[in-house]
């Protein structure tokens, strides 16, 4: 019985030590409401301060919860800034002839007719209400280009059908200085065959052209010949050029960017440059570094990076080919550039219809989610906005002079005499220039970062409870003192 009484007394001693220390610490706390609740002599005042302390705790918990919730929403703000420069890089400019092949040689027409014949097509199209002219011509073009590409890859033809730089360009000027084929790099595209890029950055040692000039008349100016109207436009439904203004380090994604310009016009294209800098995950589903890949990345992403500079549009094309077109059609869409040369192209009418059907399903959104998950968006992008104005080209006065230019005479040698109308239907002029040399930066930044989160929490603790950072250490000090006092009492009793 005496042992039980002894144990109860020990427990009371421990409880009283704990209670005494707690009361003293609360009375001396730097949390003002708490110290007043334990130190003021009047019971009413102590109750009042106690109520304020509990209300402050409730409000603080609520506000901190809302702040933390806002942080994990990963909201961001957008900062727009404009940086003026007086001397900067001129962009890359790519152009292709919409008339992809030089058909001035009768052997080329024979070759195309042979392709049509073995696929049960005829050069002479008879449009109907159910099958209008535009549909039949476009199907004919697809069939010709697919079979031609297959023959070229497998070395079944040696015909030279491409327009060279000298064939297309009447004159070239950059900031008033003559430019030529040495200033252009060529690349190939399924729809337009051989294309040309001005001011392309091939590697890190390549020096791109810069400019300090703005406005019409500056920048790149081209006069172009696109083939004789009525003679070299067989198997096409439109005449003009494809043109894109883009980053110096990449080729344009032809089917997804750029513009088409018609003959008989001067197109003045003013450009402005905008840099977009997005936040990576968890703020956006985008990738900061798209110049390299890891083992965990999708095969389509890896293939796109290996093909040059990463582009989500190009990655989508690879994904579309592997996941949908080949399994459904048992052949590859010739429009999609591949790093593999031993592939089987879709080249029959039936196979090309299959490709069109799969593409329509993909574009409607039924199939695109898989590719979207495997092809990340780049966080950092550069875009060129263009503003185009047109004027009539050439004037009759200018035509009376240029028709005697030697390289113009060469281009029209297949007809007995050049006329103003024939020249106008076979040529155009382009001027690409900076409207002003400023760069717009659209930059995202976290609405609440870690520093802001902790600052807000500290501010609310100070505002509603009168606490500081040091107050947070008071419970730790309290426990240390209680443990030390208990140890001291134990030693004293011994």
Automatic annotation (TrEMBL):
<comment type="similarity">
    <text>Belongs to the amiloride-sensitive sodium channel (TC 1.A.6) family.</text>
</comment>
<keyword id="KW-0915">Sodium</keyword>
<protein>
    <submittedName>
        <fullName>Acid-sensing ion channel 1 isoform X2</fullName>
    </submittedName>
</protein>
<keyword id="KW-0813">Transport</keyword>
<keyword id="KW-0472">Membrane</keyword>
<dbReference type="GO" id="GO:0015280">
    <property type="term" value="F:ligand-gated sodium channel activity"/>
</dbReference>
<keyword id="KW-0406">Ion transport</keyword>
<dbReference type="Pfam" id="PF00858">
    <property type="entry name" value="ASC"/>
</dbReference>
<dbReference type="InterPro" id="IPR001873">
    <property type="entry name" value="ENaC"/>
</dbReference>
<keyword id="KW-0894">Sodium channel</keyword>
<keyword id="KW-0739">Sodium transport</keyword>
<keyword id="KW-0812">Transmembrane</keyword>
<keyword id="KW-1133">Transmembrane helix</keyword>
<feature type="transmembrane region" description="Helical">
    <location>
        <begin position="47"/>
        <end position="68"/>
    </location>
</feature>
<dbReference type="GO" id="GO:0005886">
    <property type="term" value="C:plasma membrane"/>
</dbReference>
<keyword id="KW-0407">Ion channel</keyword>
<feature type="transmembrane region" description="Helical">
    <location>
        <begin position="460"/>
        <end position="484"/>
    </location>
</feature>
């Amino acid at each position: 019985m005496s042992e039980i009484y002894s144990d109860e007394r020990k427990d009371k001693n421990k409880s009283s030590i704990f209670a005494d220390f707690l009361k003293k610490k609360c009375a001396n706390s730097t949390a003002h409401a708490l110290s007043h609740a334990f130190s003021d002599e009047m019971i009413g005042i102590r109750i009042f301060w106690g109520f304020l302390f509990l209300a402050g705790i409730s409000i603080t918990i609520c506000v901190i919860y809302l702040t933390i919730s806002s942080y994990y929403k990963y909201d961001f703000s957008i900062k727009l800034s404009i940086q003026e420069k007086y001397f900067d890089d001129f962009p890359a400019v790519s152009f292709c002839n919409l008339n992809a092949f030089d058909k001035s040689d009768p052997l080329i027409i024979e070759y195309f007719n042979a392709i049509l014949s073995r696929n049960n097509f005829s050069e002479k199209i008879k449009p109907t209400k159910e099958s209008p002219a535009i549909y039949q011509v476009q199907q004919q073009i697809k069939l010709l280009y697919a079979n031609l590409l297959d023959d070229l890859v497998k070395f079944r033809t040696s015909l030279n059908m491409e327009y060279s730089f000298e064939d297309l360009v009447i004159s070239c000027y950059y900031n008033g200085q003559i430019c030529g084929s040495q200033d252009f790099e060529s690349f190939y595209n399924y729809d337009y065959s051989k294309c040309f890029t001005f001011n392309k950055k091939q590697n890190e040692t390549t020096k791109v052209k810069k400019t300090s000039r703005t406005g019409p008349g500056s920048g790149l100016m081209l006069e172009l010949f696109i083939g004789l109207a009525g003679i070299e436009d067989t198997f096409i439904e439109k005449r003009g050029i494809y043109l894109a203004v883009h980053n110096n380090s990449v080729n344009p994604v032809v089917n997804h960017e750029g513009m088409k310009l018609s003959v008989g016009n001067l197109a003045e294209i003013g450009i402005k440059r905008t840099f977009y800098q997005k936040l990576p995950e968890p703020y956006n589903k985008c990738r900061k570094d798209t110049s390299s890949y890891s083992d965990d990345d999708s095969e389509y992403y890896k293939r796109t990076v290996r093909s040059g500079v990463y582009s989500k549009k190009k990655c989508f094309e690879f994904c579309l080919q592997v996941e949908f077109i080949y399994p459904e059609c048992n052949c590859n869409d010739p429009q999609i550039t591949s790093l593999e040369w031993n592939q089987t192209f879709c080249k029959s009418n039936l196979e090309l219809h299959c490709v069109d059907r799969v593409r329509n399903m993909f574009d409607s959104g039924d199939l695109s989610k898989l590719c979207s998950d495997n092809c990340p968006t780049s966080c950092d992008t550069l875009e060129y906005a263009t503003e185009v104005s047109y004027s009539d080209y050439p004037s009759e006065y200018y035509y009376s002079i240029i028709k005697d230019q030697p390289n113009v005479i060469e281009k029209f040698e297949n007809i007995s005499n050049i006329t103003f109308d024939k020249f106008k239907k076979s040529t155009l002029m382009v001027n690409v220039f900076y409207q002003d040399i400023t760069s717009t930066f659209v930059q995202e930044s976290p609405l609440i970062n870690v520093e802001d989160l902790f600052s807000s929490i500290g501010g609310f603790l100070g505002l509603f409870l009168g606490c500081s950072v040091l107050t947070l250490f008071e419970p730790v000090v309290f426990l240390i003192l209680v443990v030390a006092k208990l140890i001291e009492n134990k030693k004293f009793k011994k």
